Amino acid sequence: MYLLLMKQLLLSIAFLFAAQLSAQQYLTRQGNITFDAGSPIEDIFAKSESASAVYDAASGKLGVQVLMTSFVFKRALMQEHFNENYVESEAYPKAAFRGTYTKGRAVGELTIHGVTKEIDVPATLAIDGDLVKLQTEFPVTIADFGIDIPKTVADKIEKDAKTTVDCTMKLRK
Amino acid sequence: MNRILSALALLFFATAVSAQEDLFDLLEEEQPQTQIVYATFKGTQLINAQTNETPGKGVLQYVIAHRFGSFTDDYLYNFLGLDNAQIRMQLDYGVNDRFNIGVGRSSVLKVADGFMKYKALQQRTGSNAFPFSLTWHSSINYRGARYTDGIDHVLLDRFSYQHSAIFARKWNANLSTMIAPGIVHWNIVPSKQDPNTSLHTTFGGRYKLNKRLALTGEFSLMSNSTLSDGSTFTVPGGVGIDIETGGHVFQIHLSNTRAMSNPYWLSRNTFSALDGSLFLGFNISRVFTVR
After folding, report:
1. How do the domains of chain B map onto residue ranges?
2. pLDDT above 70 for B79
3. How far from A110 is each of A66, A117, A134, B184, CA to CA, in Å?
4. In A, which residues are within 8 Å of B30 by CB distance?
5. Is B232 helix (H, G, I), strand (E, B) or coil?
6. For domain B43-289, which architecture applies?
7. Average pLDDT value for residue range B74-80
8. How many structural domains comprise chain A?
9. Half-sphere exposure of A107 (CA within 13 A, CB side)
10. pTM for this model (two decimals)
11. Min CA distance, A8 vs chain B (Å)?
């Protein structure tokens, strides 16, 4: 009887450790995301330094999220137009990726401008002690996300925006 | 006892599972960031009135404005009033994201002006929210036109000043309104009984119809609308549309004003829409990022 009780107790403790182990989560709120939709005629480049990213080492789940209004452009008017006329930040305040990281690829759902697309892009994820560094670069086809580009400016904006993600996440304690 | 332990174990296990599912919720748990409300109005000017907006830092803005002839003034003969166009040109610069200085020249009484604008308060949402924007606007205006009253005027007679505090609020993505109380000061008035300084309040608003098109309207009330020489002044007002295309804002409007320098349309407007004095006009702004 005693033995059985001890066994149960040990089992519970084991479960407890398992729970903690699987909760090895890494998080940042200061991730960098840039995109470049510039053409030879117009320099269209923006950077956000306040993206959030989260990674769970046990399950490989990876999430990245950014507020559209946190993107800073060189030109104030371009930034205003980006938010007001293109990505419509008031209606769609965030862009997000939710998926997994496995063997050099980030696979999951990318949501921009309220439109969700499956993506499968190359990425690097390096664990270094308490830190996880996520880096990736991939094209985002603007038309895929229902972002309307008027004909008059179509030749100034690249159809695929080169997007980079550079986030260093810290272990959550 | 066994049961209790099993239950405990299950509880821990359940916690672990739920932690998995809640991973992405961590992304949502962001501290609400303070955000400045942008684009309350499309332009730095509504029709005649200044809005709370300034050009961004290092932005050079060129505004060209026209007010055409009245509908009652041989309209077709004057090519829809275009033959009687009055013009104002303005060049201004955003010293930083809040401070703006500029100069202008209007053909009505050959008035040259200099102005400054400062965004004292900005509407914000988020953790440090603030309900409205407040922009200060001051102008100094020099009348270049010769006087025809036979009096030998000194240089200072030609100057007039205007100051206003522009309170603006963007209620939602489409609707923005503003109230701008202010004063106009004339260095010269017809007689001693007439006040040199009058109070004015401008009411304005815009409603966005779609991403690039908005309806606008404004009117201004004043404290004294008659002078001892018998002249009476009307309430200036107008309605218009804003059309935005890339770096341009086109503002096409119908108003009862022809003067475009602030003291002149605010406190010296003699036209009344009631007797058909309506003028078609436009403002076009173009911005250049120079720094």
Report:
1. 43-289
2. yes
3. 12, 5, 16, 55
4. 29, 52
5. strand
6. Beta Barrel (2.40)
7. 86
8. 1
9. 5
10. 0.83
11. 7
